[in-house]
Amino acid sequence: MIRISSKTLKDLEFHTILQQISELCNTDYGTQKALAIKPFTTKEELKTALLQVTEYKSSYLQDQRIPNHGFNSINKELQLLSIENTFLEAINLKKIILLSSTTNTLLQFFRKKNELYPVLYKTASEIPFTNEVTAAIETVLDKFGEIKDNASPTLLNLRRDIHTIQNKLNGSFGRDLNRYNALDYLDDIRETIVDNRRVLAVKAMHRRKVKGAILGNSKTGSIVYIEPEATLQFSRELSNLHYEEREEVVRILKALTDRLRPHKELLKLYQEYLSTIDVISAKSKYAERINAILPKLTSDRELTIRDAYHPLLYLTNKEKGQKTYPQTIQLQPDNRIIVISGPNAGGKSITLKTVGLLQVMLQSGILIPVHEYSRMCIFDSILTDIGDNQSIENHLSTYSYRLKNMNSFLRKCNDRTLFLIDEFGTGSDPELGGALAEAFLEVFYERKSYGIITTHYANLKMLAQELPEISNANMLFDSRTLEPLFKLHLGEAGSSFTFEVAQKNGIPYSLINKAKKKVERGKIRFDKSIADLQKERSKLQKTTSTLKSRELKAQEEQVKLEKINSKVQQKLEGYQQLYDSNQRLIYIGQKINDISEKYFINKKKQALINEFMKIIEVENSKRKKQSAKQRKAEKAKEARIAKEAEQKVTLIREKKKKIEKAQKEAPPKPKPVLKNGDRVRMFDGKAIGTIDKIEKEKAIVNYGIFTTNVALDLLELVSRPKN
């Protein structure tokens, strides 16, 4: 059984992911479901959910997209169906018919496309398909959601009578309107509507001259609203007919509602299905936004994520137009735990949170932004200890809270657990807290758990170096500028660069030196050794990059030379063939000339023909017979060889461009400060001289035979004098 606590979800900001997904839902019910997403408890349900999202996402590339799944929630309608003697109004029925028809459309689509969407089809096949609900409602409602005239014979007769009386009323009112208007009894507006009845707008001074019922007057009292006496009878008849019509409509709606009551559970199932599709659709849209995919799910205990992005950081930086650095990390049986160290603000916590959040997202059926070659397993529990977590309510300090959390870890940790701990062991005395943290780590190690921790403690770095299935790692920093490179490097512990960072931020060297004396010499030497190793690695990486660039350049030149050599060889062969062809033609020409002279002398046609035939047979015997198929194959082979050579050149050029781009992005090397006695040379020269004196940005350089003044900017250091 897979169990992931709400604390873990909170630590990893999983609720923010759900909020972003819920905003992509089309329905209110789907939005509620998206906000309630939790990690699946069984692997079967999880795999189904992941494949559903993957299939829906693939539909964006298909010619026939998945039909619309929008609907309005029918919770209120379902409640009414549960209560006897209630009925649904036309607006409620319209929502139900939309729900039913939308579901049926989706079910039919997945049945037709079952080979293209096998998992979505399997889900759809569990939902009953029926037209009974739609057919029942359509006997009563028209396409505009209004009650049909022929919903019952009684309603049809009533509406005919209403139409007749309405026409009589309008005719009678029109005659009175024209008559009183001609007598100038009416105001400029002539008529209006009061209580849904047509009335005359009579000038107050003439109100006694117009027979009828007064229904009101204007605010100023200058106009009196009168319904003419002739139309009163028609109005009363019309009101009675409308009352009877409403009673008949209610009777029809009650009968229809009773027909729909047996389908209440089916409608509830339809709503659940469409809201599930809405959540799947929102997940696939979110996957498009963050370039997410489904990595390879493995039954082995392995977590290999390549080029992984923290989705929240990725979207934030995308809006700001900033770059997000991907991380690559691997946990497997022979390397189960990673201890990340190094200075703050280098990306240790982000790396740790990225691994945790992506694992939780995957186990909640959400695709993740990683490389397609990533491999991930499913953990039964994910334990986190991230952030301060000081508990004011329970009067617990940070360290007390963390100890309580560690105690919980001890109860739950096993070989199917992933633990993520930020700043492991902090909050207490460094030596005592470090020792306790070391003991905890040894227990996690013995229980075969998988995990990542970040720390500054040297004893934890040493432990990771000693135990075979734990490895050190550090976030790379530029050794010169101490700027973070946001890249994780496995295999080495990271220096905290405590004193170097302090010096960079302007702390006086005397104070830093004083602090160094207060620390044990062994600790300083250990941290300095780590820092020196990181600097050496940085230099080696730059050297490796340069050598690779040169190697690619040499390969490119070699391919070019091979291509040129091939062309020259082809031309030489062509010239040789041309020479041989010309020589043969000269020989044939001489033979024809000799035959012509003989014919000129003896006039023997048969002898002439025989000689010609001999020449032709000799030449044909030299020709190589080839079928059309062989000639075509030979041409195709030549074209393939030429294409392969061109592709090889293109590939080498692309690699060269990448290396050149990386070298351009790398920070420039600091220019050394030149001093007296340094051996130097000009950037564009080969002669090496010695600096005798430096004055006003110029140096007097001694070349042995002569001396000269040269600007410092034009000189590069060759070597310094040995002490």
CA distance, first residue to last residue: 71 Å
User: Shape, please?
Assistant: extended
Structural class: alpha/beta
Largest sheet: 6 strands, mixed
Low-confidence stretches: 390-395
Q: How much helix, percentage-wise, in residues?
A: 40-55%
Give the overall pLDDT as a whole number: 82
By DSSP, the count of extended strands is 19
| Gyration radius from CA atoms, angstroms | 45 Å
Strand order of the largest sheet: 10-11-12-8-13-14
Strand content: 5-15%
Q: Total helix count?
A: 21
Descriptive account of the structure:
There is one protein chain. With 723 residues, the protein is of the alpha/beta class. Helix content is 54%, strand content 14%. The protein contains 21 helices and 19 strands. Helix 14 (398-412) links the parallel strand 10 and strand 11. The longest helix has 82 residues, at 521-602. The relative contact order is 0.07.
